[in-house]
UniProtKB/TrEMBL annotation:
Compositionally biased tracts (Basic and acidic residues): 7-24
Name this polypeptide is given: Uncharacterized protein
Stretch list, region Disordered: 1-56
Amino acid sequence: MPLDNSESEHDAHIEDPYESHDLLPHPSQEAAEADVADRTQDDGDNSASDDNSPMLDYDAAKENELQLIEQARIEQETQDIEANWRRRLRTSTSTPSDASSLVIGAPLGKNLTAIEAASRLVTQWEAIYDQTLSSTPAGAPSVLESLTQARNQLAALQSSVTEDVETPLNSLQDHKQTSIASRIQTLEAALEESTFPPEHANLSAAISLYRTSRIPYSSNWAIIYAGHLVDFAPTYTS
């Protein structure tokens, strides 16, 4: 039976629907290739990060070490400052009570007898005189007068036979009145020479406070500020 050429040709020209698509890349193939490329890049980044991590760890450790060293230095410096302060405090508090003071009129001590007080007064004036000779020789003659007076007073007490010389001065009313009168006299002399208004006000206030007994006889220091009595202090440095 003869073949139908037309049908044969028609069959020959039927295209396979899968042939044409095999010639072009599939979308799923592109996505797969892109994913592989991304993973490859990520692996490269991770590898680079892993390579740098030891260096980063070293830098962090070094920085932390420097911070610890600086903190230790600050703590040691603070401890040294505190130790020096405590050492100075112990030195000042352990100073003997009979140590001579260069402050004119400074308390000589507590519960002293007349002879003890006179002896310490001589020692005090001797220290003041030596200091004056080395710093301001022009003022030495007046200091020498006070020193001579203190020596004469001590000599008189040492030759006295009365019991009062062995009695604590704080219990002698006459001594209290004499001491206050002497302080007022010293303040009045300073007031006459004062030319600084705030100092003049404080000196005037001190004289008035002594006379009205608002500053009693004691071994404490009266603190006067702007012409007003502020407080009392046990020592000159406090």
